[in-house]
Amino acid sequence: MDFGISGGDMTNAFTSHAPTTMYVDINSCFATIEQQANPLLRGKPVVVAAYTTGNGCILAASIEAKQYGIKTGMRVRDAKQIYQPLIVLFPDPEKYRYINERLTMLLQSYSQHVQVQSIDEMIVRMDEMPLQSMIALAREIKQRIRKEIGVWITVSIGIAPNAFLAKTASNLKKPDGLEIITKTNIEQVLGLLALTDLCGIKTGNATRLINHGIATPIEMYKTSPDSLERAFGSIIGTYWWLCVQREKHTAKKLQSILCTDSSNNSNRCGNYPSGISTGRKNGDTTSS
User: Fold this and answer.
1) Which CATH number is 73's domain given?
2) Residue 81 in domain
3) Catalytic annotation on 121?
């Protein structure tokens, strides 16, 4: 398979594409939507759990709950040991899908290239748009979300040359962040992160990389595709190199896999309850 990377030293061949991909991530999605729907919950530690009993897995924690150290994937009983008055709610999939559809429609008013990545994440491609216009657009989107969807709904937005890096940027500051990754700051950004801060790199993949002398994202960025193939034991290593380094469409298939909640293991207690989709659904992609 030809990735256009054969020959020469490719270890510092960061894409020349402008940062025209935007990743939009609803903060504390299920919990925030519940707070939007019920003003009495606003400002309080709230979680949405698969089951409200002690053994239930927390699917989403509100911003206030996270301030106590309560995280997605915890059991309800463990979270209540941290904060006993914690409000625990059962999921309402119809409510979450409604917000997902409203946000998708809002984003489609700016671009026909909108990809619904999960129930709370969307990718927007704005071809040929200058960076300063992208930043202004992101701020406008945030304002419109508060005005047209809900005053309690916030999103973190990342802007970068491809979806993987845009998602990485969206994770840099939460809640309500707006961060950009470009050729100018890519090394500075990656230098602040651990391997497991990258979407799709969990303990197993991190161990593979460390065993091959790649202990940080910046080392991953500076290594060659051949070295990453040896670390991952397959062509997946080259896909990873493409995600971190290169073109915005070449590694699209891997980006689609890596940038979903399910591949990021955010639901560590098992499957979501029936009716909540966390991956891209048929018909959700308006442009490929």
Assistant:
1) 3.40.1170.60
2) yes
3) yes
